[in-house]
Amino acid sequence: MQSLRLLLYNIRYATGTGPVYHFPAPFSGSLRMPRGHLDRIAQFLREEAPDLIGLVEVDSGSRRSGHRNQAEHLALMVETPYFFHANKYSQRSPARRLPYFRHQGNAVLSSMPPGVTRTLFFDAGVKRLVLETSFDQFDLLLVHLALGGRTRKRQLEQLTEIIAGRTKPIILAGDFNTFKGWEELKPYAMKWGLVSANTRHAPTFPSRKPQVELDYILHSPQIRALRLHIPRIRLSDHLPLVFDFALPG
């Protein structure tokens, strides 16, 4: 069986974490990128040597990132030949016309040549993107769900429609913002026929003292889980997930 490594990480637009993030005003750190911080994230990614990287909260070229596409920069630094970035807001969203927001999205980096890559959008919420990347033996879906419980429920129900009828194994990963943890997501995972790579349901947020499980890698049972590791690294307010798995056949 072919074994692969997927790394999932909400990098918070490489804006860092800690008290300095809220200096001189609360959340003012969201408007700047600490010097060298993106390169520190790249170094961590290189050390983990993943075949696939799913990145949540990536800047495609705002003033905050020095007008640099973070996904492209990380792909060059980590030496993954394929990368895909898409804005997390729907085509008609007012956020597409706002500074910073119009560059905010998610990305997939891959050492393997993909098939079709496409962007789907939920009908509800501000963050609506489902970034889908197809490979020979499985499909990868990357999401960042809504903060509001009612909207998040609608998005989870729509994921049921997106997943239904697929014959190829899938990996569904991302920041689900499930503030009730696995108990909130479990009924949907059962409906989708997916299992969690994080079988202990270890918390992933906040990185300084993890309390709640927000970040998930779910997969079809045909995909064999080999190991899940959650590095205790504080380059973001989320912890990354590193998933080793084997493909059938």
Structure report:
This protein is of the alpha+beta class and about 250 residues long. The protein has one domain: Endonuclease/exonuclease/phosphatase (Deoxyribonuclease I, Chain A). About 20% of the residues lie in helices and about 30% in strands. It is built from four helices and twelve strands, in the order βαβαβββββαβαββββ. It has helices spanning about 35-50, 70-80, 150-165, 180-190, and strands at about 1-10, 50-60, 80-85, 105-110, 115-120, 130-135, 140-145, 170-175, 195, 215-220, 225-230, 240-245. The strands form two sheets. The chain has a six-stranded mixed sheet with strand order 3-4-2-1-12-11, with helices on one face. Strands 5-6-7-8-10-9 form a six-stranded mixed sheet, with no helix packed on it. A hairpin with a 7-residue loop joins strand 5 (about 115-120) and strand 6 (about 130-135). It is globular and about 50 Å long. The model has no long low-confidence stretch (mean pLDDT about 95).
* Class based on secondary structure composition and strand pairing: alpha+beta
CATH evolutionary superfamily: Endonuclease/exonuclease/phosphatase
Average predicted local confidence, pLDDT: 95
Helix content: 10-25%
Distance between the termini: 6 Å
Number of helical segments? Answer: 4
Radius of gyration equals: 17 Å
Main sheet? Answer: 6 strands, mixed
What is the annotated CATH architecture?
4-Layer Sandwich
Strand content: 25-35%
The shape is globular
Low-confidence stretches: none
CATH topology: Deoxyribonuclease I, Chain A
Compute the number of structural domains. 1
Strand order of the largest sheet: 3-4-2-1-12-11
What's the SSE pattern?
EHEHEEEEEHEHEEEE
CATH classification, class level: Alpha Beta
Q: How many strands in all?
A: 12
